[in-house]
Amino acid sequence: MKKTIELSEKQYSVVYAENGPLYVKASAGSGKTRVLTERLRHLLSKTKKKVLALTFTNKAGAEIKQRLNEIDDIESRAFIGTFHGFCQSILESHGNLLGFSGMPHIFEDNADRMELIEQAIEEIPTYALKYVEKNEKEKRDFKFKALSFISKVKRDLIDDEDFENHTDNQNLILLYKSYQGILRSQNALDFDDILLYAFKLLTDFPKLSSMYRRSFYAICVDEAQDLNNAQYQVLKVIADDGFDNIMLVGDPNQSIFHFNGSSAKYMNELFVDDYQPAIVELNENFRSSKRVLEAAQKIVPEAEHVENVVKEGIFELKCFNNEFDEASWIANKIHELIQLKKHEDIEGSITAERIAILARNKYLFKSLENELSNLTLDFYYKMTPGAVKFESSAMKVFDMALRVRLNPKDKLHKTKLSHALGTTNETLDAAEDIAVLTDRNDLKSAIDLAYNLNEEGKNLKQLIRAIKEDLELADEDEKAMLFNDLDELEKHWINYAKNSNSTSLLQFKNSMALGQTHPLAQHSGITLSTIHTMKGQEFDIVFVLGTDDETFPDYRAVRAGGIEIEQEKNNMYVAFTRSKRWLYVTWPSSRTMPWGDVRRRRVSRFLTDF
User: Which of 133, 215, 226, 373 lies 20 to 30 Å from 141, alpha-carbon distance?
Assistant: First the structure.
């Protein structure tokens, strides 16, 4: 076994705790994953039996496996994965006991569930007659309500005969039964069913739960603050009948999956009542630095605690004459840091892969790309998988219009397009049908672009050039966003065309949808990312550029006010807390618009107290 290293006294007490129930309250940055991994390593050194380690994401499970990869036969000696993955393995092995022929097909996509609920409605004639009289919004709202009810029934493990105690809406009860009947007739189940049927197997067949109980030496649960009822009950069935070698690790203040019925009460209250565990608090912060957390605390004062932080770190807020000087400084600073190689704040070497540059919107990286390239610094864009995401309202309309043009049967995007244009008219069979629905020049231009592209797409550059030359739009912020989106579309076309023997508009759209046209697709070097794409990720060194007001917060949020501004403040907080050690925040006092005008800027309203 690999020797445990760099454990604090409290971390050591968890890793080498005596067998028995253990509740570890691990605050942010306290080394939770390290403690959990080393605890698993220690447990495996004491037994030939299996250990069960349950996580809430595949990513967390993969990270734990990677840290334990030097252990022989780790795959056979430990189940390390999500609750759903574990319950799926139970169904794969024993689903026949519930009448399934082989492992049922899983309908995990919400679109599949929406289609199933439509079918369920059609099977209830008394309700279907009322349903067809509803407008589209009422139908959509009812389907969401029905699916929410179905999910809650399954998470709460409610028996069919007990429905009446949970709703007086007979239509919902009938829909649940019809929905489940359709699934069973197709030897299928949805995501919530995986836990429900695993629980039924373990409770209806005691010998089965006893077999699992005997096969595991210990159970460890990561991020236990996100447990919901179904998950906790599955856990209890296995950790029953005297089995108590179970550890829950989590932070009550970081429960994030509330939409799944999760609650910290399962870890904080029920587990404590059911198992009377030893409780250890890990409250030293080894992940984040003091300076970064102090800066984040100025954004959201109640969110961060800095008293137990070990590393000092760096925070700097810098102003530059313009975005070009800003980009030059960032590139040179990164070059300097990589040349430094070592610093006591950062474990290991300072490399490009440990550095991220964040911005509110992707177009802000334009000047920076050239500066990084001039210094031969490798970089790549962290992309959200799937379709290209445009930022301007006009190009969002373009995307919907192009979908409708390429697939006239696409009712979903016809509906979305009509709503975006402020109408309920869903005829929309030609550009002229759509263009008359709006008096906004930028939306008309976007619609014309979608419908005037030829089938090979080869006139795209020409049409984009014409829009830039002819478009009249009083709102300069919206115009700038549109110009940047047009540049982005052209980049994707170039990437598509150079990898295609022949081009077609339909193929281009599909390639964008699959993420095949993104530039700089390699995953090495400095990470460039929008803040929205970076949630859940952390780097030792982070730069946040473009923090001038109406850039961050975004000008649209400034105009909307209210909850939109509050969300922008949360985005700024997220950006700051992506840094583990050093954080550099920059802004330009002037910014050049795409057509050459220069506008004065002031620092973000979130940073005026710095």
Answer: 226
